[in-house]
Amino acid sequence: MQTLAVTETITTIAEAEKRFGLSRNESQDFFTEWHDQLPEINSNDRTNLEILWKRYIYHRSDGHLLESTVMLLLVSPLLTVAGLYDPPFRIKAEESVQITIADSEETLQGRIDLLVLQDRLWVIVLESKKTMLSVWSALPQTLAYLMASPNTDLPNFGMLTNGDDIVFVKIENQHYAILRVFAPLATQSELESACRVLRKIAEIVK
Predict the structure, then answer these.
(1) Which pLDDT band, with edges at 50, 70 and 90, does 106 fall under?
(2) Which residue from 29, 100, 117, 197 has the least number of CB within 10 angstroms?
């Protein structure tokens, strides 16, 4: 059995689709969690998100931010407001995963930036990049990591961000979907929308 690194092996969407037998689902009914009956943001949450957004903009205005800084300034506070650091969820950082490719002599190995768990259901696989890199560069490896979930027959969700942009992805039964880019760098309302999507996902799996 040959062991390969996810970051070196799964570098394109086409490669992820080929190795895992994935197909993209364009149906409006497949990924409704990002727009259907989203939880509201109360005044206290809005205040916290405003502070988060202003802090991010302040530091971002001085130049590009490293991945670790994006995690510190944007990702961690956003997950806090969305309630994903609280019961029943568990957080694992730099989680090692191994993915065995069906009908192959290959095993893929990698590390997930941040994994949010509810029992054995993977709620959010988060991959972040520094601001100078496109958020889409994290999509191939995110698809790979989601395929390492112990519950691939249930919905699993990923969140990709470089700080400036946020993208959500859903995988279920070998099908995946991605949706429009939320752009916190543009307006605070985009950050609020992303927070509502995170809360919706949290509601579904509790």
Answers:
(1) confident
(2) 29
Pair of tokens at residue 205: 């799996």
Mean pLDDT of 81-101: 89
Calculated CA dihedral for residues 175, 181, 182, 185, nearest 10 degrees: 150
Whether the ω angle into residue 88 lies within 30 degrees of 0, i.e. cis, is yes
Q: How far apart are CA 112 and CA 168, in angstroms?
A: 15
Identify whether the C-beta of residue 74 lies closer than 8 Å to the C-beta of residue 57.
Answer: no
Question: Across the chain, which distance is largest between two alpha carbons, in Å?
Answer: 54
Long-range contacts of 41-45, Cβ-Cβ distance < 8 Å, separation of 24 or more: 41/192, 41/195, 41/196, 45/81, 45/195
Residue 126 is predicted with a pLDDT of: 81
Say what angle helices 139-146 and 13-20 make with each other, to 10 degrees.
Answer: 20
Q: The pTM is what?
A: 0.91
Q: Are 169 and 176 in contact (CB under 8 A)?
A: yes
